Predict the structure.
Amino acid sequence: MNPRAKVWLLSALFLAGAVPLHAARIGELTDTTVLEQITRFFSLRDPALRAVLLGSVLLGITCGLLGSFIVVRKMSLMGDALSHAVLPGVALGFLWNMTKDPFAIFVGATLAGLLGTLVVYAITHTTRLKEDTALGLVLASFFAVGICLVKMIERLPTGSKSGIDKFLFGQAAALNTQDLQLMTGVTILVVVLLALFYKEVLVSSFDVGFARAAGLPTRLIHHGLMLLLAFAVVIALQAVGVVLVSAMLITPAAAAYLLTDRMHRMLVLAAVFGVASGVLGAFFSFLGNNLPTGPFMVLAASAVFGTAFLFGPRHGTVARWWRQRSRSARVERENLLKSLFHVLEAREFRGEGVTLQEVCERRRETIETVRHGVIALRRHGLVTFDEAGEAVYLTPDGWQRARAIVRNHRLWELYLTNEAKIAADHVHEDAEEIEHVLGEETVRQLEKGLDYATRDPHGKVIPSTADILRGDSAASAENLIGYGKRP
Amino acid sequence: MSELIPVFDFQRVIVEPWTIDRQHFLWVALMGFFVAAACGLTGVYLILRRMALVGDAISHSVLPGLAIAFLAGSLASGAATGGSPVEHDLRSPTLMFIGALLAGIVTTLLIEVIHKKTRVKQDAAIGITFSSLFAFGVILISVFADKIDLDADCVLYGEIGFVTLHPYAQWGGTDLAPWPVVRMGVVLLLTAGLMLLFYKELLVSSFDSGLATSLGIKPGLVHYALMCWLSVVVVSAFEAVGAILVIAMLILPGATASLLSQRLPAIFLGTLIHAALSALAGLHLAIWLDCPAAGAMVVAGAILFCAAWLLSPSQRLIATGLRRRLTSRDEPGLAGGVEGT
């Protein structure tokens, strides 16, 4: 097993270990079994639970959509910086009239977030400091100001039971109707704005130069996106908490990025993943009564990412490993076919079949290795193998493949010596690599370009495509005793 | 609003810490300086190598490492005493360091795997890695709350004021210094020593990894060594300043110093000065406003950064602004002169 699979497996094991232990504790506290909790969750009888679920869905949609754009714009950590930078705004919004008024907090947090992005912009544009440093600076400094303010507010007589510290790790259970209205408003705004300006945002995300040349206000788009991002961070605060909002932005979008190459598909996938991780997170947090929601949502999102990372059809690790394996197996087979051809060619295609001994001498390999290779060839119907006599006979298919590979090799050698003026003793290695990937179309062009040459730089015959396709060689038909059928 | 910011009482804020409360304040101030300096020195290389946000990632992901270390510690001591965990020995420093090192290595590896094996860019890889690990840590802490002696507050802003509550290190029968201060001092000394010892390696591999390779230095090895050391520094600063404010301790001193100079030795000196100033100013600020000391230290450091940003001789923000205004005032006069002729 490779190391990353181990890491994922370990974390899954840890989670699996954590859940039952925890469930046992709930049982003591509330006298409900896990099963009852699960039925309560899915029957949606609890009004608070309905609010949480609605909140997670809205959150997932907004974060997924905006996250996709910040991931493709390579600004992922801007979301992180922004989410930490809103904390002083949250505190100031709270100070406005000393209650947890969602609208005051929304305004305060958005302003603080925007100020944060502007400071990052200013630092990178007026000093030598690089963007990562600027992001880290803003993130931590704003967060420190926020922490100080929050603690000072908690010290006040009215602030002690404010629950403002719930903003740090999030508690979706505390969502009220006003919060939900706000979340709905922001989600609609984000969806509508992105739908209206989809083309503009898309172009400026992938090719700033082109967007600017086309007359698009790229800087305005950047700051507009930052504003929407600040909105998204602020509505996600209650549910996920300041510290982990960035994960809800980045992780679902990154998972979607692994699965598709089209932006609109990525947006849909990211929104779906966002909703899924929000709901899953709410579910686990519900199972474990007073646990913070945020971390569970984030871990759910990471699990989605891990799945996409491993099992994605095109960019997934498993798929890629499988492709690589099958490709190297094919190369192995073709090389063995080529050796069989060389053995036959060395005795001018006389004699019947090729013994394993001859192949071993040619390839300088042990008899076991060659036997394995031959068995693989037989599985693909390229040879027949006489186990008792240890002799190999090419089938018509195998004969065709072998000649095609030798042709590719020799054509390429000739091409390199003739056209690229490379010395004849330097072309073999290169041809060894390319013979397996040359397509039919390229081969025809090569043949044509080389005037249907019949000899390679070392004086060997190049099998011609026409002969190979005919399935038999007219030129050397009398020599072809040994190519295939059993005697 | 007026009750939020207490009146500035010079006697209480500035004088009393140095007179009545000296025994306590001195150690806290020293601890603050040690933390900021050790983090700052390591941070200079993070800034140079454009890895400031890897520092961010490691400081977050040390949390699960610590949680697992505490859990292991409590399980081990529970087993030793026949089932009931012993209160006092939950925080074994060795286990903490091992946990943090492992967390640091896992973070670095995960970022690299995600970044190299997929199309996901490095910034997103960093974000995914540290947020998952941090979330995992938070869940561990809340699920095993009775076994892990860590609370959310400590994670967020540490408890630097508590250093004097710890037992003192003894030397020949007399009390020397509280253990956390001694430990942090050793870490600072080691950091400085390692930076001096491997000055050339770090310098060359930070600026030109091609040259480093040709000089026989392995940039990959230097990278991993730096990440390991970063985890050690972060975990020793953890109790004092928490997981998130550590980022500020890592970046602020170096960033401020590199606004003021371009020479590496001068930057290191500036880092130390910034660390000392922000520790002192921050602690006084914390006494005045009655807020977490670590937070106040970062606020003070950020103010110092802003001052350097506005006043720095090399960036000349104010100087350029002034010159621009002067030239723009000149221009109409010039135009008027042309019109006059």
